Amino acid sequence: MPYLEYLRIERYQPEYPQAISRNEMETSLPKISTPRLCELTVKGRVWRDLMRLDTSALTVFSTDTPDVVTILGVLQRSPKLEILNLRYPDSMYFADPRMTTMIQMTTSRIRSLQVELREDSEPSFLFDFLHLPSLTLLKVSGVYEFSWPEASEAIAQSLVNLLRRSQPPLVTLDNQRMNLSSVQLRDIMELCPSITTLCLGSCDFYFHGQLVSTISLPLLTVPVSTPPLLPNLSNLTFYDVGHIDFDELVMMLESRQNWRRPGETEQEQRFKSELTCYNLTEDQQKHLAGLSNERMTVTVNGLPIELCAECHSSFPASNDFVFDKILKHIRRKSPNGFCHTHELQIFEPLAKEAEDKLSSYDLALDQLRDTLERLERQRRDLWMLKEQLRGLIKPSIRRLPTEVSLHIFPLCKEPEWGPSQCDASLILSHVCAPWRSMIFSEPSLWTDIFVGFGLRDNDAAAQRILAFTQFCLDKSRARPLYVEFETPNRGDYRSLGYRNSDNKWVLYPKGLHRPCLEEVCRHSNRWKHATLRIHGCDSLDFADTMPCLEFLQIERADRRHDDDPETTRSFPKISITPRLRELTIKDRAESDLMRLDTSALTIFSTDTLDVNIILDALRRSPKLEILDLRPPRTTYSDISFFADPRTTMMTCNIHTLEVYGDNVPDALFDFLHLPSLTFLRLSGDYGFRLDSLSFVNLLRRSRPPLVTLDIRSMSFSSNELGDVMELCPSITTLCLGACCDYPIFERRVSTLSLPLLTVPVSTPPLLPNLSDLTFYDVMYMNIDMLVMMLESRQNWSRPGETEQEQHFVFELNGSNSWLRENENDEKRLVGLSNEKMTVTVSRSRGG
């Protein structure tokens, strides 16, 4: 859309099915290029439309969405934004709560920010993540008050923190409705001395028993011997003030009248003040108006209007027959006629009298308009108070539209410590009959199924769990399922149990959970996200096709003691899983791996030690990008640590490889070719040595564009470490842990690496692109060699990079005892930090 400059969208229907998350929509929606879009206004549920637009040229943005995550996302994508108008931003509203983890501080060049609040809207979360160094106009308006005191204080304090963080050159501050305490108002005045226009509305801070307009008078009064808080203030307005101290008001105005702003001429010193107040007498209003002179203008509104009981006019109904006199003379003349000389003495006074009467009409109309606006504001405020009172009698949440309620209900789920989604839905259905009908008829509220068996469960408990699981599966209809199945799974499941009150060991009944597991597996064709923690002898009868499955995790207890042949049935068929992206296999669940279609797999994690199983999974997963190997400490006699003689070399497009554990099958590296590897992490227990020859040959064979190398608690010789650096010169991030030189275990790899990392005088270093270097769990290190290495890196200039890109970061995590004994060395290292290098030293808990 190359010509689009202005766009307004209003949508008040649900944008997308509730089962689809924002993360999925953000990646699936087609983008629309709008290079000239300057002004955008969106109202209602328009998140889908908003995410599709290119807002790189946007300068004006207006919205009434309460989702602060969406608002911050637009600001981050709109570097040219200057004007932002928000209605009803609410920190408690998120279209997708999972997106809150992605929120970060947002710096914007906005010059004008206008925020309109409504009852119980709470924008503190938005203010806490904004940095507005160019803000010149700030306006806050909205409801009369909030239903709880903490909200008012939190909003005001968040606004003060925003101004303290941004230090903007604020010129205009218009606060018509937000409550401020005297301390907060003083903080704003001290943080923004550049304010020239200040507007304070009916902000009755009931919880402190004062009005903002009242508490501001001492702050605005110019002291005798010191400059005022707002030295540049030239326009002051009080809106809808219900009460104000007249003597303090006069004192403030007179002090402003006598104040001389430095550097301004007499004409530039003029001060304007406008007051709309209803408690002042007529004499007091005249006294204030009399303060006006050549240096100050005072305007007082809100004079009571007495309406005529007959014609409801603000002045007597009689018009002294002016209208009739003029009409009589006009009728005597022709349309194009003119008056005679002797008639001028009659017509001119009539015209002057008519002009005076027209001025009276204009004045009456202006007063009536002011009265009408005042009455409308008072009616609106009274209506809001009435609604708050009615909400106490009958909770307003029961009157919410169905689509709004169905958006709120899923937020009641607390998966870590509270009820699951299905449990929460069942609890909410007990509130009232309309909610029960709504919840039972919505399948999406029953798709998140958690099945958990405990050690103390018996047959009765198993029957209740099975009945509720069947109930949830029926209510979910044909929607995709999120399944989590938990069984007691600590150690050998044959001895699982607990001690009863008689101190007798009660075993967990064998197969207690299997009927429920079979019921869940019967619906495996609807699985989308499944986690199964089951026993080794449990059978999984997958569906022939699982078209929705994207994530699967299977953890089995030790299968070496399977002694129940009736339940260990085999299912040789392969289930088609065309959308399976992430798979985790743990605790000897290799048989389940062989039955799955992994053609679309991108992330694979396993703890198996069998080389042939791992290679077979890689061979069947052409799209695999991330491989995570975490073998257990113990080994089993039925595991093959050697590859099948028929195994051939395998090329994989893996870009991330993480290996952790003491029993890593070295033979795996002999059959891999990883030309796309960019991230490699090797870690294990202290002193464990990986087959260095296999590892170095893997790098020599693959020649990967490695960017990050992380080696912890594994043994390498200095030659092997040098070979790794020569084979991977593209490394930019290097992390070395407590790794030993295996011929001489007293020497550490972090120490051995210092000569290799030091930049030679006349030749390039081994790692020319290195910009981040970290040493973990260092017990001892030669400080002189370390300082020499850092100074050489500090003086090294990577070719083809600017001065800003040359920055080098070094982090040292040393033992507490070593650093405590060598505090001078620690200060010496930290003192090397400058604009080209950052050095950080931290202490580990051990030592």
Automatic annotation (TrEMBL):
Residues 351-388 form a coiled coil. Keywords: Coiled coil. The keyword ATP-binding does not apply. InterPro entries: F-box-like_dom_sf, F-box_dom, LRR_dom_sf. Pfam families: F-box-like (PF12937). Residues 397-450 form the F-box domain. The keyword GTP-binding does not apply. This is F-box domain-containing protein. It comes from Paramarasmius palmivorus.
